[in-house]
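FW: tagging you since you asked about this chain on Friday. Here's the raw sequence from the shared folder, copied in full. Didn't touch anything.
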Amino acid sequence: MESLPSARLNRTLALGSLLEIPATALARELRRRLKPAPQSRGATLRPGVETPLWLALVAAARPHLRPRGAKSRLARVLGLDPSRIHEFFEARTAMPDAERTIFLLLWLEQQRLDRDKGQ
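HL: got it, structure written out here
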């Protein structure tokens, strides 16, 4: 008799057990794809939303880099090739090491002092 609840329940359970294996595999694959890639300890940071302080420093320095030759002068101060300054402030694909970041902060403060003295 087809209309008995136990017969329908048995068919539903059989169908559910057939779908269990693919559903489990699909859930595992989705967890793997949606999980962020693990970052190794001490990995190099790249400029972006994970580095808001660097982005604030870039925003503070950019007005001082507009005059002709300013990027070249900063590159000499930091001991870098001018193309690295472009990568830091224009392309935003790289960040300096800690020592050069401190030099950059000092340079920025000197630029502010010079601007305030000129007013």
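FW: The radius of gyration is 29 Å.
HL: agreed, and Residues 52-118 form one domain.
FW: great, closing this out.
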